[in-house]
Structure formats: structure tokens, C-alpha cells
Fold:
Amino acid sequence: MSESTATGFEVPLHRSLTEPILMGGAPRTVAIANGTLAAAVGLGLQLWIPGIALWLIGHSLAVWGAKVDPQFMSVFARHLKHKPLLDV
Structure:
């Protein structure tokens, strides 16, 4: 057998099972939370410019984080749970 896999032991793996769910390049949960917060500031407090700026900056940071590591939010949440090793 010159093949690297045995016959009959192959299954199709769809891209939707392996790729992260992104909205506009940002993780879905982060994009929804950021949009909700920006809408609350922009519509609720009627501060349009700060709301748009908050959304633009937050979404840009989320897109940058997703490019570096698509699971950066779960890593960051796990990081916050751990206590620092070197207390001063």
C-alpha cells in the first residue's frame, strides 16, 4: 500500500466544522456584544459620534485579534480565571 491512509477509513470533513464563526472578520460573540454596546451608547444615550467610534475601534481590535488567533476570546477568558504566579 503506497497510500498514507487505509481504504475505507476516510470521511469528508466540511469546512464549517473546522473554521471559526466570524462576523465581518471578528468572532461572532464579540461582534454582537460590541454592536450592542455601541448601539446602546449611540441610540440610548444619543451620543452618535462616541457610539460609532466605540464600534469602529472595538470591531477593529476584534478583527485584529481574530487574525492573530481565531479563538482569542476563549484564551483571554481562561487567562482571566488563572491567578498570577508571581505575587508581589
